[in-house]
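Self-study notes.
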Amino acid sequence: MLNYASQKVQITPTDIVNGLGIEKRGGSTYRAIYDALNALESVELCYVDTYYDAAAKGVTPGRRTERLVKKSVFKATREDDTPPRSLPLPGMDPPPPSVSTVTAPSEPTSDPENYVELGDGLWLSLTAGYRFPVDREYLNDLPNELTQRLYSYLTKKDSRSPQYEENIISLGRRLGLTKTAPAHIRESLEPALAVLATPRGAHGKVFLRSHRFVGQRSATKLVVVTNREADVQAEQVVVEKRAADIRALRERLAPTRP
C-alpha cells in the first residue's frame, strides 16, 4: 500500500506491474506503463466554479486548471528499458562521445531514484482524505462511460453512509450530461442505475441495493443505498494480497549470502 508521505511517491515500474496485477512481464508491458504515464502527464483538469477547497470547506469561484501527474522518473534497471548502444566494427576506432553519452558529474540530490510526482491538486486531494476504494475489475467491466462515471461518483459520496441522495440536475452536471431537463437526466440515469443494481462479474457483485427518484421537476432527487462495505472489504483483501506478493518477490530477488 502506498503511503502519501511525499508528493513524490517512491515506486518502481515493477511495483506498478505488481500493483495492477499484470501477469505478463517483459519489455512491452513496461513500455505500456511508460506510455500510460506519459498520457497522464498530459492530462489537464479544468474547474469552472466547481473546485472544492478542502481547507476553506467551500467551492472556489473562477477557473482553475490542474495536472494529474507532474513527472515520472525511473532508473533503468531492466535490460529491456536501457537503450541499445552502437558498437564499432572490428578494426575501427569507436566514435567520439556525443552529448547524450557524456556522463555529467553527479550532484547531490534528495530525490529518490524511482518516483512519480503527483500534481498539486491530486496531492491536496489525497492528503485531505479524498481516497476511497474502487473495484477496478468491476469498474472496467461496466458497459459504458456513463455507468462507470456514476459508479465512481457514488463510491466517493457514500463513504460515510451507504445511503446517499442528490438533486438530479446537480448530479447530471457533475456526470457531464449534456441534457439539463430533469426528465431527460432521469431517462439517461435509469439504464445505468439498472446495471449497478444487477449482479455482475464472476462473483455476481451488486453495487446498488436500491435506488429511487423522489420529488417533482427541478426538485427531483436520486436516492440510492449501496453495498459500499463490500467494496471496502474487497479492497482490503486486494491490498493485503499485493503486499504479500511484493514481499515474496523481494525475497526471491534478494541476494543470497554464501
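Second protein, same conventions, sequence then structure:
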Amino acid sequence: MKRIGLVALCCALAGALIGDVTSSPAPRPQEQEAAAPAAAAAGDDDTAGADALTSELAGMRRSLHEISLLLSAALDQQEMSVLMTRIELKQRRLQPLEVSLRGARGSLESVKDERSHLTDMIEMMREEAGKDTPDAESLKPEVERGRKQLDRLAEREATLRQRIIELEDDLARNQEDIATLEEMVDERLGLR
C-alpha cells in the first residue's frame, strides 16, 4: 500500500510538471496581434526552447519513475529482511521449548517409575503387616507413609502432564507461526 502511494506520487508529480509546460493557457487575441511581429522573429527560438524543456521534463519523469522502482525494490527487500528475522527469532525460541519438553517428559517417566516401585513396596509391606509376626505392627506406619508419598507422586505426575501439554501447545504454535512466515517468504520469492 505504501509502495503504490509512492509510485502514484512520483508519477503525479512528473505528470504535473509536464502538464504545466505543455498545457499553458491560450493568449488573448490582442496579445496575439501585438506579439505577431516579435513571434515571427523569435518563433524558432521559442519552439526550440519549448522542445528542450519538454525533453528535460520527460527525462525528469523517467528519473522519477526509476526512483519509484528503486524505492519499491528497497521496500520489498526490507520487508523480506523483516520476515527472515521473524523466522530466525521463532526458530531460536523452539530450542528451549524442545529442551523443556524433553526434560518434563523425562521427569514424568521418573515419577511413574518411582510410583510403580513404591506401589510394589507398599504391597509387600501390606502382605507382611497382614501376617502374624512381631514386625507386622511396625510396618503399618510405613504403609501409611508410603500411601502419602504415592499421593504426592500422583500430584507431581498430574503437574508434569499439564506442563507437557502446555509445552506441546506452545511448540506447535511456534511451528505453525514459522510455517506461515515461510509461506509468506516463498510467495514473495514466487516459489508458491
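Instructor comment on the second fold: Residues 88 and 111 are 36 Å apart (CA to CA).
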